[in-house]
Amino acid sequence: MENIRDEITKLVNLLNTYSYQYYVEDNPQVSDTQYDTLYKQLEKLEEQYPQYILNNSPTQRVGDVVLDEFEKVTHDVPMLSLSNTFSLADLEDFDTRIKKLVSNKKIEYICELKIDGLAISINYKDGKLIKAATRGDGIIGEDVTENVKTIFSIPKVLKDNKTFEVRGEVYLPKKSFEILNKEREENNEVLFANPRNAAAGSIRQLDSKIVSKRKLSAFIYSVVGDETITSQNNALNLAKDYGLPVNNNFKLCKNIDEVFNFIKYWDVNKSTLPYDIDGIVIKVNSYTTQEEVGYTQKSPRWATAYKFPEEELATKLLDIELSVGRTGIITPVAILEPINISGSTVSKASLHNKDIINELDVRIGDTVIVKKAGEIIPKVVRVIEELRPINSVKYFMPVLCPSCSEKTFSKEDNPFIRCLNPDCPEQNIRKIIHFASRDALNIDGMGEKVVKSLYEKDIIKHTIDLYSLNREELVQLERMGDKSVDNLLTAIENSKQSTLDKIIYALGILNVGKKAGKILAEKYQNLTNFSKATMEELVELSDIGQITADSIIDYLSNDNNIKFIDELISMGINPEYKSNEIVSKSKFFGKTVVLTGKLIELTRNEAKNYLEKLGAKVTSSVSAKTDFIVAGEKAGSKLKKAEELNIKVITEEEFIKLVNEV
Ligand code: IVH
């Protein structure tokens, strides 16, 4: 018997650790399926040996842990959890169980998507949002009112003066998750494992300004404390009428077969949704029947969550390709025999670096288990060693760069391998693409295809060559008409007017993202100063860590990079940085401006660039929304219209004066 007791203790401790990693650290170490399987094992043991049930067993808890930082809120009605079902057979049992418990045997179910986010309770008083709380342990949650108020889809005021509580799920759309993680990667921050963790991490941010940037959203799935409501169908429709965000993909099902069809449909189509779902919630529709069926200590008996099986599929690893990035880092990429995971075809997965390759001991020809983490990024999680071909060989990262064949470089304490050759083709192509990309110098039309073909034709070899491109060279490119060439040349010319933060970001320094670009621009004010940055200064800056400071010094101690910066400066690319604070003092900040007539000192584009840098919006037609019109020589109908509408008209001379004022 001692063994059973030990086994139960071990399971409890393990599950509690997993739960802590999941809920508190927002950093799960095992999949939901793995957790659920262990949980079921524990439940079974506890059922057989109730004398060994521990007080801290997860089966005895309603929910997760409450954090200390937020004020605590006691829920008027406890926020329960749902029982889980993993197969259609389990669901049939659920249906039978319910039918046994009620007199009326014709049960209608509502099927809803199980949104993969975190549960939230929101209180409205006389139609106004007054309080919002997380679920916490089901009894006591955390007051996250200010954070929830930043969620665009949640009304701060209802269409009716109602006083009630609603409950729902806060989530992060897949697209916002991708953008957020990309930004975090650029800023050298730890990535979120999936949208659910990102949503949970965001709502528990103490600074609601940060929360507002995260683009969270929500769906409401229940209304508490409205005596007039008779069914879940009724509740959802009413919530919708009050202006609350209700997910439209719910269905009233007349029997369990209709429930099965709903599940099958969404199992196939879930990947087309712009947010993650991890199952389907099945609820008895009628409130009277719900009361008849009742509750267990933790969850309603009248509802259950059907969990989709997590998709981990086996496939063959055909090859390991190496890709050279702009900073010279060589990343191994698994080339897979294509498989369909959650509705999309997967044929590649990142293997990250030499440490991951060693850990997995992954070899070409192996059968590997591939998983889509958070249903977005495919990952090789394991090798099935039993299926390894006898002649397989251990994989080692290359000694020579796959693009230029120069010797690669690696540090002992760093899993990344780099090519340091300044003339490495792939690296330079990536550098140029990055330099021209939207968040950097935004040279519209200078994308991957154009850069590659200019490189292959020997027209450009380094980023600086972009500024000596001419018409004859560009027309040589496929599908480049006169108009496209004009546009491209204008875009290149305009890029010279870019702001310092973007230029620093565009240099492509390892670990220097958009945010670091801004911090460095703020500190150094121009490129000349930046090129002389010292380690002492950099480590003093808040938000610039040692790793980033190292990369910057590494970059600036390379003569080729200094030469590049000097060349940019001599091209006239060396703007003085104007911080947002200064910019916001400009007369043009947040204003709508129309340019008309012929300008003498400036080109139209230069004027437009100045205005945009000062936070103005430049439009082409005059309307009541226009704040200023800049009238050059021979201004015609637009000037007339502006005068009629009493809009402020300024001359080019006045304009230049105002621009220089900040
Ligand atoms: S109903 C009594 N409906 O799933 C519990 N829950 O494990 C009522 N969830 O904590 C919950 N989508 O965070 C319900 N359409 C939906 C849901 C949903 C997601 C979450 C919710 C709950 C968890 C249950």
Describe this structure in words.
With 662 residues, the chain is α+β, with helices and mostly antiparallel strands. Helix content is 37%, strand content 20%. It has 25 helices and 22 strands. The strands form five sheets. Strands 12, 13, 14, 15, 16, 17 and 18 form a seven-stranded antiparallel sheet that branches. Strand 4 (118-125) and strand 5 form a beta hairpin. Helix 1 (2-23) packs antiparallel against helix 2 (32-48) and helix 12 (425-436) crosses helix 13. The longest helix is centred in the first third of the chain and has 22 residues, at 2-23. It is globular, with a radius of gyration of 30 Å. Bound molecules: 2-(butylsulfanyl)adenosine.
Short description:
By secondary structure, the chain is α+β, with helices and mostly antiparallel strands. Helix content is 37%, strand content 20%.
- Beta fraction of the residues? 15-25%
- Report the helical percentage: 25-40%
Q: What is the helix tally? A: 25
Task: Give the names of the bound compounds.
Answer: 2-(butylsulfanyl)adenosine
User: What quaternary form is this?
Assistant: single chain
Structural class: alpha+beta
Question: Taking Cα atoms only, what radius of gyration do you get, to the nearest Å?
Answer: 30 Å
Largest sheet: 7 strands, antiparallel
Count of extended strands: 22
**Terminal Cα separation, in Å?**
80 Å
Shape: globular
Mean pLDDT: 88
Low-pLDDT segments, ≥5 res:
62-67
